[in-house]
Design brief:
By secondary structure, the protein is mostly helical. It has one domain. The protein contains 3 helices and no strands. The longest helix is centred in the middle third of the chain and has 8 residues. It is extended and about 40 Å long. The N and C termini lie far apart (47 Å). This is Nucleotide pyrophosphatase. It comes from Pseudomonas syringae pv. cerasicola. InterPro entries: Alkaline_phosphatase_core_sf.
Length: 52
């Protein structure tokens, strides 16, 4: 059985903003066709040095 996988990683975007702004992915999640995981990290975001 073949399963297609799409991995989307958002670096430095607020979780609530991402859920609100990515409506298409939220619809997949609500329909049970996708999974949503919130990750908490200890290190600063990879893009942070670009803003300092």
């Amino acid at each position: 059985m073949k399963h297609n996988v799409i991995l989307i990683v958002l670096d430095g975007l607020n979780y609530d903003v991402a859920r609100h702004a990515m409506g298409h992915l939220q619809a997949w999640h609500d329909a049970g066709c996708a999974a949503l995981y919130k990750l908490e990290c200890e290190l600063p975001a990879l893009s942070r040095p670009l803003y300092e």
